[in-house]
From TrEMBL:
<feature type="region of interest" description="Disordered">
    <location>
        <begin position="20"/>
        <end position="40"/>
    </location>
</feature>
<keyword id="KW-1133">Transmembrane helix</keyword>
<feature type="transmembrane region" description="Helical">
    <location>
        <begin position="86"/>
        <end position="106"/>
    </location>
</feature>
<keyword id="KW-0812">Transmembrane</keyword>
<feature type="transmembrane region" description="Helical">
    <location>
        <begin position="118"/>
        <end position="138"/>
    </location>
</feature>
<dbReference type="InterPro" id="IPR033579">
    <property type="entry name" value="TMEM128"/>
</dbReference>
<protein>
    <submittedName>
        <fullName>Transmembrane protein 128</fullName>
    </submittedName>
</protein>
<dbReference type="Pfam" id="PF20479">
    <property type="entry name" value="TMEM128"/>
</dbReference>
<feature type="transmembrane region" description="Helical">
    <location>
        <begin position="48"/>
        <end position="66"/>
    </location>
</feature>
<feature type="transmembrane region" description="Helical">
    <location>
        <begin position="144"/>
        <end position="164"/>
    </location>
</feature>
<keyword id="KW-0472">Membrane</keyword>
Length: 165
């Protein structure tokens, strides 16, 4: 009798989609895994947390203590890598702001990556190439610390942008 009951419960499990609510069993409870799944859907993660705050503060500290803006200003015309990196960064940020502000906020499209699947890979590729260009442009200033400093700036910008969308 238990084998028949287990087989019937297994059959019922595959009748419902994973996102659908779990029907109560004969005792009237849905089980502990169903309640945690419902809680996860109802309670969104906070945008501001310790992780994002750490990266934003670290980015501000790098900007201040490494004279980041002054160094960028002084070395902007010294290398042809800087304008290339700046143009690619502008393209990447433009696509990101287009997705966040226009598609998500103005048009109300929350799954823009499903509707426009090429946006995310293009944005990622241009950002990576921009990072390589900036590393090449600033290597003579900070040497082996350049990737670390630029990564900290990158994470600060990403966490700041994630607060928007």
């Amino acid at each position: 009798m238990d084998a028949l009951r287990a087989r019937e419960q297994l059959r019922r499990r595959y009748l419902f989609l994973p996102d659908a609510e779990v029907p109560p069993d004969h005792q009237g409870s849905t089980g502990p895994e169903a309640s945690t799944a419902v809680e996860k859907k109802e309670k969104p993660l906070p945008r501001v947390n310790i992780h994002s705050g750490f990266w934003i503060v670290a980015s501000i500290a790098v900007t201040y203590y490494a004279d980041f803006l002054k160094t960028v200003k002084d070395n902007f015309h010294a290398s042809s890598w800087f304008p290339c990196g700046g143009a690619l960064l502008l393209v990447s940020l433009s696509i990101a702001f287009y997705c966040i502000f226009y598609l998500e906020w103005y048009c109300g499209i929350e799954d823009y990556d499903v509707r426009y699947p090429a946006l995310i890979p293009i944005t990622t590729a241009t950002f990576i190439v921009a990072g390589i260009c900036f590393n090449a442009a600033l290597w003579h200033v900070w040497s082996f610390f350049t990737p670390l400093l630029l990564f900290t700036q990158f994470m600060g910008v990403v966490m700041l942008i994630s607060l928007l969308g």
